[in-house]
């Protein structure tokens, strides 16, 4: 169960109405650690009239980089990169979803998620790939909220403000 104060400046849930969900959409899903949207789900089926969603979790699928593999083995959060379809899950709660994502499917079941220009992302503050060597001391995250100023470019990354 998630409890949050009623906001007066925006109705964040209007984009999560039952009629907003459709097959083949990718959504960011809140985690249970600090309620940040750091999981991704591929909508497989929307049931009606009783609202129910069948989804497939997208799980990190790093390339051969041993540091990325160590990060995933340490169960540290992965916000962008390569993802593959994982386990199937059913939910009747649209409030587990944060927002719809735009990503690229590069092969059957393989997706690439990167920040896109004009999006807002929470970046880890003082992030280091070596956190995986001591993950228990790196589970209290600090963030910087940024606007993405450029699309991702291989070997160059992105610009943020």
Automatic annotation (TrEMBL):
DUF3444 domain span: 3-160
Pfam families xrefs: DUF3444 (PF11926)
Domain of life: Eukaryota
This protein's name: DUF3444 domain-containing protein
Species in which this protein is naturally found: Datura stramonium
